[in-house]
Design brief:
The protein has 423 residues and is of the alpha/beta class. The chain folds into 2 domains: 93 residues, no CATH class; 235 residues, Rossmann fold, CATH 3.40.50. Helices cover 48% and strands 12% of the residues. Strands 1-2-4-3-5-6-11-12 form an 8-stranded mixed β-sheet, with helices on both faces. A two-stranded antiparallel ribbon has the order 7-8. Strands 9-10 form a two-stranded antiparallel ribbon.
């Protein structure tokens, strides 16, 4: 019995944040570099980049008169305190009792590892549109249905729409050979056909992040079956901000090619490591802050729910990884008009469809300028710019007011002639 209890306790401990060794190494190198540089520090050093000069001068003024040994001791104490808070935050997260317990909706259709989940609210009015929801390929779909009070899909369903969520799942043996064309002209078109067979048409297409690019490509192929397009935090011009970072991600495909070639996919930890380069200390800052939260608070539970989702990513099929890294990030193929699906260029300027592009103004994953490029390219577009981040827009405390209700208002403004009574 003792062995069984210990096994259950161990199994309940989370493994994140992933990849943990990388995040610990980043914190160690960053904080210990302060200890190493202090004895050699000088504001007059030619090694400082010019744009940092004002901050360096301000730091020099703040340290004026400081006793070197006392400052060194204070610096050492702060480094140790930060390590302690980071360790406490990680430990608190890994042992937190919260577990997502929402019941999964019925599966309307499935092919391979791809499923279509039907979020229709039983007994609700059925006058609103059917909405085919397309999430990213590299994260679990349930970020759009995270908790009972932070669920975009359940909010839409309660308002009388019929959300149908594409749940990609992890690539199986067949999907490891998929390209973006296979996912869009294959699986997504099949899912749309199933929706049309179930309820008629047209439907609204909604994509989040990477799913927004897939949705744009599908919309161009199936315009006659659609009544509207919604793109949430969707990148388009990958070189609009921080182009050097995007090109570095593009160049990384050669580093991960042995993985792609030998196992047929880009593993979750490799994906996390590549994209951590956007803000290497972000995870460290989050967990240092989490150590200060009351574990029983709603804020702490939401933090755990989001981190569980982030750490439960899915691998990316090898052909898709090459296309996204080398094509989207490296060559900026969407904005350049060079991205092709089933041989056809994906050109949003040709999409004559009512569209809503949601551009969170604090997004660090999809820079706002990247998403603005999509809004500029769509001919019949409205733009919504909530004061939120990439994930906070979907599940944060302000999500109902900043996204859920404005989205419902936009849906209600679509031509009523598009909708038929849905049972």
């Amino acid at each position: 019995m003792e062995h069984q209890a210990e096994a259950e306790r161990t199994a309940s401990i989370r493994l994140g944040p992933r990849p943990l060794p990388m995040h610990l190494a980043i914190a160690t190198m960053t904080w210990l570099s302060s200890r190493a540089i202090w004895p050699l520090w000088s504001s007059a050093s030619p090694l400082w980049r010019p744009e940092f000069r004002p901050q360096i001068q301000a730091l020099e003024a703040a340290l004026d008169g400081a006793e070197p040994k006392a400052f060194a001791a204070a610096l050492e104490g702060e480094i140790r305190a930060r390590f302690d808070r980071l360790a406490a935050g990680i430990e608190s997260y890994r042992r937190h009792p919260f577990r997502r317990g929402l019941a999964e909706p019925p599966v309307l259709w499935q092919d391979g590892t791809t499923r279509l989940l039907d979020y229709r609210a039983r007994g609700a009015g059925a006058d609103g549109p059917a909405i085919l929801v397309v999430p990213s390929l590299i994260n679990r779909a349930h970020i759009l249905d995270l908790t009972a009070d932070r669920s975009l899909l359940r909010t839409l369903a309660a308002a009388g729409t019929r959300p149908l969520l594409v749940d990609w799942g992890a690539p199986g043996d067949l999907e490891r050979g998929f390209s973006l064309t296979d996912y869009i002209a294959g699986r997504l078109e099949q899912a749309l056909d199933r929706v049309l067979a179930e309820i008629g048409g047209p439907v609204v297409l909604l994509g989040y992040c990477m799913g927004g690019l897939l949705a744009v490509a599908l919309a161009l192929r199936r315009r006659r079956d659609l009544a509207g397009l919604v793109c949430l935090a969707t990148p388009w011009d990958f070189h609009a901000e921080r182009p050097s970072q995007a090109k570095l991600l593009g160049a990384s495909v050669s580093l991960v090619e042995p993985l792609l070639r030998n196992i047929g996919e880009l593993p979750v930890d490799a994906i996390q490591a590549l994209f951590a380069g956007v803000d290497p200390m972000q995870v460290v800052r989050k967990f240092v802050g989490f150590a200060e939260l009351d574990p029983d608070s709603q804020r702490a539970r939401l933090f755990v729910a989001v981190e569980d989702w982030l750490n439960d990513g899915v691998p990316l099929a090898a052909p898709v990884a090459r296309e996204c890294l080398a094509g989207w990030y490296g060559a900026n193929t969407p904005a350049a008009g060079a991205w092709r699906v089933a041989g056809e260029a994906v050109l949003p300027t040709a999409l004559d469809l009512p569209s809503l592009v949601v551009i969170p103004d604090q997004d660090r994953i999809v820079p706002p300028a990247s998403a603005e490029a999509l809004a500029a390219a769509l001919p019949r577009v409205e733009a919504l710019r909530p004061a939120a981040g990439h994930i906070g827009m979907i599940v944060g405390g302000g999500a109902p007011d900043r996204l859920y209700q404005p989205l419902l208002a936009w849906l209600s403004r679509l031509d009523p002639g598009h909708w038929r009574r849905r049972g």
